[in-house]
Amino acid sequence: MTYSMKPLLALVALSLVCLSGFAAPDEFTLTIKNHRFEPKEIKLPANQKIKLKVINADATPAEFESKPLGREKLIAGNSSVIINLGPLKPGRYPFVEEYHETEAGAQGTIVVE
Amino acid sequence: MFAAALIVFRESLEASLIISIMMAATRGIPQRGRWVGAGVLLGLVGAAVVASSMGAIANWADGMGQELFNVTILLTAVGMLAWHNIWMAVHGRELAQQIKSTVREVNQGSRERSVILLVIALAVLREGSETVLFLYGVATSGDSGLRDTLAGGGLGLGCGALVAGLLYAGLLRIPVGKFFAATGLLVLLLAASMASQAARLLIQADLLPSLGAPLWDTSAWLAQDTAAGTILHGLVGYDAQPAGMQVLAYGLVLVGIAIGMRWAATQNQPKRAR
User: Fold this and answer.
1) Interface A:B, Cβ pairs < 8 A
2) How far is CA B256 from the centre of its chain?
3) Which residues lie below 8 Å from residue A68, measured CB to CB, with a gap of 6+?
4) Is the pLDDT of residue B102 over 60?
5) Omega of the bond prior to A45 within 30 degrees of 0, cis?
6) Can you tell me the mean pLDDT for B45-74?
7) How far is B256 from chain A (nearest CA, A)?
8) pTM of the model
9) Which residues in chain A touch residue B54, judged by CB atoms under 8 angstroms apart?
């Protein structure tokens, strides 16, 4: 009995860990201010689904775009969107604010580890 | 100015390519120019409306409204293109005959004309709304000079139109006998490409699994944001890092429409075109 309980307990513990990860979907936030990303580099955990909140603090519309992630989403002025990501393999995934993509501040990187 | 040109070029190119493919694909249908023009106008009005209500659209469906809205547009266009190609599988020979002789008119095609109108309007709406938002942003912030941006935008639009015009001119050089087979193939690839984009948005909305993201990566070989990558994306749906689900959707629509065309052609062979 106790012998067969062990893996079960491990599974429960693991799922609790997973749940705690999902319980705080707004943990990862990216802000656009003066057409610049803050932070410019954001670390995300690997191999799990993530909700990334992108806040556009500017009055003008913005567009979050990442070709490597296959994501593209408009953000109206002074509002925010949720971008679903993952599960992602470890690596570096660049993204841009498309309307100002030639400016260094409008370029950022998601680092998955 | 260059940045504005690049953005408007990218956004307008896809719509321009769709317009020139549809223009070619509907060659011989009376008054199609007028329907194409009406489609562009309708699309521009739609783009302005969508751009101005973008905040509201984004809040639909638990914040996934933007994705679902675009998926609806894309899948409607896929349906229209499928209908067009199946219709052409029956009437293509008739139209080719007519181009050769320039005597008899194909009297049918009133529904086909509304397909042209809708496909073009949807393409302009989808690509145009992003451009409208970009220009609106520049106009209200006034940070990089409105006149420069408009000049750049004009340049981008001109380049997009030029590429599309070259495609159209190139297509017209195809012999009449093979003409509609060629445009049919282009329309088929266009529909598959839209299905792939719809799949990408459904993955983004977390409604479909990605089935491998990306399935492969050819960005080192041909990045999607280069001119060639952009043109290939607009023409055949080139994606440097596609998800497995995108490839699946692309394949399913490609095969599905091809089967529909084959079926329609065999159904109509005995009585010949009606």
Assistant:
1) 75
2) 18
3) A93, A94, B214, B219, B241
4) no
5) no
6) 92
7) 25
8) 0.86
9) 61, 74, 76
